[in-house]
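Encode chain A's predicted structure.
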Amino acid sequence: MKHPHFTTVGRTLGIGALMLLSGCTMEVLSPKGDIGAQEKTLLLTSLGLMLLIVVPVIIMTLYFAWKYRASNTKAVYMPRWSHSTRIEVVVWTIPCIIVAILGVLTYKSTHALDPYKPIESSVKPINIDVVSLDWKWLFIYPDYDIATVNQIAFPVDTPVNFRITSSSLMNSFFIPQLGSQIYSMAGMETKLHLIAREAGDYAGISANYSGAGFSGMRFRAIATSNEGFQDWINQAKAANNPLTPESYQALVQPSEHNPVTLYSSAPTGMFDNIMHNTMSKIAGLDPASCTPTSKNLIAGNN
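Encoded structure for chain A:
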């Protein structure tokens, strides 16, 4: 007969486990692009190799604790035992082999999955400039003269080249199902190259805590057909909402849970101006030497 107390505890633990698992989407383990797929393989391979050590150790720990318990009089008692060559060979050789394999995998994957390494393709890539603001993402399409907040789009099977910087705090640009996160830092430019192999609406996040609005600093990455991408570009151009230095000054002010915004145009070289002017501020240079557009952007970065 089951005890009522144990039944209640079991139900409580079961419900608690389900609640915890409900927040897990496992997006990293459901890749939709080449980089994400390679990272998943690397992750699972490394996990399997490490489990070759962890699982036997756990099993042996339980087995030895049971076999050599005080009540087991059949177990051999050897109070003066201190060394076994066979055991030493096993406990040192196997881990060394696994560590060596992991070292080779790490070396190869570090170069193969370098975020700065362009993706080889016969298709012309899409260039997107990324600026992390407090607390939203500004995306600039220099080849299409548009900009967006908290949403990007690109064609399937087309490489996407990201240039990334920050207007203030450090953040981390990450689209889990496409792979590879990389930091955005004030006054610095980082790069990332991704590609989507399936159409979809993928979640993008900041993976680095950056203040009060961090939890709402999310965006959508839409992988679509070439026709769908062109329709999206046309929708942005028809928004009649140009991104001017004045509107950027308002946008750069801290705000949370910003809606998706499309800008029909953006100043030429805006990404470089933001990055260089932020660098000048950090270095303590006089903004008076900057161009009029740069001065306005500096004002917006205050």
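The mean pLDDT is 86.
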